[in-house]
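Lecture 7 notes: from sequence to structure.
We start with the chain below.
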Amino acid sequence: MSNCRCRFHVVGSEISFQAVTAVETEMLGESAQTLFYPTWSACEPQGIRGGDTIIGHIADSSGAQLFRQFIERVKAEKMATPRIVIVADHLDMPLEIDLLKLGVTECLMRPLNLRRFSYLLQSIFVKSKSISQAEASQEAFHGRDLLSRIAKLSAVSSNVLITGETGVGKSHFAKELHWASSRAQNPFVAVNCAAIPEHLFESELFGHERGSFTGADRKHVGKLEFAGGGTVLLDDVDALPSTIQPKLLHAVENREFYPVGSNQAVKFQARLVSATNRKLDELATHGQFRADLMYRLNTYELPISPLRDRVPEVAKFVGLFVQQFAAENNCPRPEVCSTALEALVAYSWPGNVRELRNAIQFGAIDSDDGVIRKQNLPERIREFVASHDGAIGSYAMAHWQLGGEGSLLDDVRRLIRALVRHNFNRTDAAADLGYSRTTLYAKLDKLKLN
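Predicted structure tokens for the same chain:
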């Protein structure tokens, strides 16, 4: 899906300009791809599409002249002119008019107004994504984005079978499907079919009446009834006991079921989503799973690729898991430095998303100051990265291309995110970061921001 990314080409060798722009574009998410060039002459028109955006730094009149030469090369190649944002150290009115005539979308002066710069990039990103999504709808099924398929499924009530290796995040995407649907206001109920003893399974799934068996001293509402009009996830559905399969088939086909010990049918209103890391058709061939039930559960199969084949999603899950860690432990959200992120992107993730979540928790616990660094990650990850020189993902490449110290990028990232969190209120951002106002202003001046 790289063709559907919003691509930013950043031209300029000044490290503060590169760092600020890198952080602003990475905050747009994994759908934003950022490439860095030290000079205008290094930015080749052949590698730029008409829908791309160039963010270029001009320090003086010589920089403006190099930009003019670049535009001439674009026109000579008879290419569509990309969006161009110029960030200039000095810009008088005649030069600005000249640049706009050449096709510049926006001219910004330094010190850079961070709020205006952020909103401008967000606007460009949204416009580019809308175009990309329209193009993506024309692609073949196997190339469609997973979330776009979830969006389509959210509009219908068909049963879904989610397949994939252990730990790829099948339950996560089942929740995404639930939250994206009209059932989101109703319960999401997960049933781990491999964890429930067989003699308790019927009661857990369908419920029971008081006195229906020894020990049933009160009425119990089963998972199917409790879910109401929500979603029921049958995780590890391949472990569903053979004695339960015909009763579940009846519930799915007739949209009703009978609690244990009851003659009164209960309406089955929930959507059924099943998940497995095994091939149900092979189990059915060997008589280990009912074929008729398999077909009922598998109205639409949603395969989830292993995390090693979904490198751009690593950063998204890292963000999700640090938020979860903070919520679960009632503590500030941990930061993940660039070297740690590079290691996480490079790792092969045999345990998939579940292993990534554990690695983030390990790193957060091991950190002394709320910042997860490479040395805080589990040893197996550090050893793997050390033995695979240069095996870093595309998300991390931008930071290597910066050529600056990782600590500077991390510092800029924390600063800008704090300002965004507090709607660019400097006093609140300084307090959040533990800075004095004087320190915050000094850092902004160093980065040529206002």
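Points to note: Residues 236 and 276 are 5 Å apart (CA to CA). The chain has a mean pLDDT of 83.
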